[in-house]
Amino acid sequence: MSSAQVALLPSVQQFLDRQHGLFIDGAQQAAQSEKRLTVWDPATGKAIATTADANTADVDRAVMSAWRAFVSRSWAGRTPAERERILLRFADLVEQNGEELAQLETLEQGKSINISRAFEVGCTLNWMRYTAGLTTKISGRTLDVSIPFPPGARYQAWTKKEPVGVVAGIVPWNFPLMIGMWKVMPALAAGCSIVIKPSETTPLTLLRVAELAIEAGVPEGVFNVVTGSGAECGAALTSHPHVAKVSFTGSTATGKQIARVAADRLTRVTLELGGKNPAIVLNYRRCKPIA
Ligand code: NAD
Fold first, then answer.
1. Average pLDDT, whole number, for the chain?
2. Ligand 1: residues within 6 Å at CB?
3. What angle, rounded to 10 degrees, do the helices at 176-190 and 124-134 form?
């Protein structure tokens, strides 16, 4: 079933009709950039919404919001059990709004509504609850250290895992919600704050899910969304001095650029890059029946 065959929920149409800004400090805010990006429904070729095309100053505003939230310890300072409860509530809200998210995904991305319901929403929910549970299972190690001085001395060392700070997440167009939440949830579980940039062609579900995070109790500034081009918005995000970790999924060519920027700044980076899968398009009308 494609977008053309789905009876749209009123809330979906209302969301499409909004003048979308950037999600910063816990709310949608107008971008400084006046440029807009059009979101198209690939099934019908129709324009369905517009979003902000964030510039470098907009990205700076989002990263500084995430940075302020991190250093205030409004999230990192909560106990693991408190963070877990909020993240489980967040998953419940995604489930309650699952049909709306599935419809938005099918509209902007073009995949069948059944795939949106099962993968984008269903798999995302499993992942959200799994990672919420990890919040209370982050632990370090105790090490028996062998230093032969003074003779007979015994030492112990211990490790503790700490949130690194602001995470930048860069997401491709194929599974916008699911891959987006692959980045958001571990960052939040660890106590980090995040600025996430969806693909310019599929920005809607992450903008909506950020509102649900706030409704669940994630503090303002911990979960920010910037929409815009890779060349300006993406590049400004991955090279920002207050970003401590970059998590990228996308093409190999873009991944190489991001790796160079990360190496220059010694930023932690995870790259999940494009494959080489062939796409075979079959037109059954032209196939001759096998005798
Ligand atoms: P892409 O690399 O063009 O874009 C991915 C994201 O990077 C987008 O949000 C884009 O705006 C941003 N971006 C572009 N230039 C940037 C820059 N200089 N700095 C920072 N961000 C920048 O890829 P795409 O076409 O959107 O996604 C499809 C690719 O992703 C395919 O190659 C696919 O194989 C790959 N992919 C791989 C996996 C995996 O599991 N390994 C999963 C999903 C997608």
1. 95
2. 170-174, 179, 197, 199-200, 230-231, 234-235, 238, 249-251, 254, 257-258, 272-275
3. 10
Confidence band, pLDDT 50/70/90 cuts, at residue 290: low
Q: What pTM was computed for the model?
A: 0.93
What domains, with CATH codes, occur in the chain? 22-136+161-272 (3.40.605.10)
Has 272 been annotated as catalytic? yes
Band (pLDDT 50/70/90 cuts) for residue 219 is very high
Q: Assess whether pLDDT exceeds 80 at residue 275.
A: no
| Signed CA dihedral, 10, 15, 19, 25: sign only | positive
If you measure from the C-alpha of residue 287 to the centroid of ligand 1, how many angstroms do you get, rounded to a whole number?
35
Q: What atom in ligand 1 is closest to the CA of residue 258?
A: 19
**Beta strand pairing status for 142-145 and 155-158?**
antiparallel
What CA–CA distance (Å, rounded) separates 15 from 275?
A: 33
The pLDDT of residue 101 is: 98
**What's the count of helices (H) and strands (E) in the chain, helices before strands?**
10, 11
